[in-house]
């Protein structure tokens, strides 16, 4: 869905346009620019686009499919300072493979994935508990009532550092109230884990609302990368 998005210009122009929008939203929220990290989702785009992004100063990129993420991370392993984030549903049987290339997993919502990701191998992966704000199983996420239990489990898993919570705004309702609910979940999580103060929320259409409600990590694809190629 690209309705309402300005996809004009080249990659650098789109990146600059989004950066300007993020800066405006940060100022409007009375926050500081260094509180917000923009992660560029490169879904279906070739590894060459990741190289272009890196040349433009981007250091945080993301994928939502393990096979694609694994291949692209290998193809771009020479790029200094590049951090890969996994933002899709991760199968438990692929979790240990994902440890080899990811800096962070934003979609922890099952015991089996948490347990599989937890390995005491000297590499620490950042983890975000994905929260379901609408109860739709197909979109992933743990119900709000189960967040505290999963947080407790994560705190005792080796090799994973709990950073905070993540959510996708529900379909068919305004994003701002949904992100306000996520912020309240974040507040509750911090009572158990004070250091888990990150909120991964906001995509191309709704990042300003997410920033207004405390988002620290934005997951932006189309507004920066342009229309996606067909899935391979």
Please provide a written account of the structure.
This protein is an alpha/beta fold. It has a single domain, classed as Alpha-Beta Barrel (TIM Barrel). The protein contains 9 helices and 8 strands. It has helices at residues 11-28, 47-55, 66-75, 92-98, 111-117, 147-154, 175-192, 207-212, 222-225, and strands spanning 37-41, 60-63, 83-86, 102-108, 125-130, 160-166, 198-200, 217-220. An 8-stranded parallel sheet has the order 7-6-5-4-3-2-1-8. Helix 4 (92-98) runs parallel beside helix 5 (111-117).
Topology record:
Layout: H1 11-28, E1 37-41, H2 47-55, E2 60-63, H3 66-75, E3 83-86, H4 92-98, E4 102-108, H5 111-117, E5 125-130, H6 147-154, E6 160-166, H7 175-192, E7 198-200, H8 207-212, E8 217-220, H9 222-225
Parallel strand pairs: 1-2, 1-8, 2-3, 3-4, 4-5, 5-6, 6-7
Give the overall pLDDT as a whole number: 94
Q: So what's the overall shape?
A: globular
How would a textbook summarize the main sheet?
8 strands, parallel
User: How many discrete domains?
Assistant: 1
- In CATH terms, the superfamily is Alanine racemase
Which CATH C-level class is it?
Alpha Beta
Topology pattern, helix = H, strand = E: HEHEHEHEHEHEHEHEH
Helix content: 25-40%
Radius of gyration (CA) equals 17 Å
Per DSSP, the total helix count is 9
Report the β-strand fraction as a percent range. Answer: 15-25%
Unreliable spans are none
Q: Determine the CATH topology.
A: TIM Barrel
CATH architecture field: Alpha-Beta Barrel
> How many beta-strand segments?
8
Distance between the termini: 18 Å
* Structural class assignment: alpha/beta
Instruction: Write out the strand line-up for the largest beta sheet, numbering strands in chain order.
Output: 7-6-5-4-3-2-1-8
């Amino acid at each position: 869905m690209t309705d309402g998005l300005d996809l004009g210009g080249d990659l650098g122009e789109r990146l600059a346009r989004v950066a300007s929008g993020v800066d405006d939203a940060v100022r409007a929220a009375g926050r500081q620019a260094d509180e917000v990290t923009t992660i560029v989702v490169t879904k279906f785009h070739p590894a060459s686009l990741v190289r272009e992004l890196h040349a433009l100063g981007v250091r945080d990129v993301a994928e939502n499919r393990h096979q694609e993420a694994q291949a692209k991370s290998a193809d771009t392993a020479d790029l200094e300072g590049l951090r890969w984030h996994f933002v899709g549903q991760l199968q438990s049987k692929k979790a240990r493979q994902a440890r080899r290339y990811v800096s962070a997993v934003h979609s922890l919502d099952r015991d089996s994935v948490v347990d599989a990701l937890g390995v005491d191998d000297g590499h620490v992966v950042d983890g975000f508990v994905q929260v379901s704000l609408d109860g739709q199983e197909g979109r992933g996420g743990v119900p709000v009532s189960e967040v505290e239990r999963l947080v407790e489990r994560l705190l005792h898993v080796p090799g994973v550092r709990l950073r905070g919570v993540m959510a996708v705004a529900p379909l068919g309702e305004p994003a701002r109230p949904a992100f306000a609910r996520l912020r309240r979940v974040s507040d509750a999580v911090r009572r158990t884990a004070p250091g888990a103060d990150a909120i991964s929320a906001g995509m191309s259409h709704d990042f300003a609302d997410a920033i207004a409600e405390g988002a620290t990590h934005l997951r932006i694809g189309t507004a920066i990368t342009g229309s996606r190629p067909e899935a391979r």
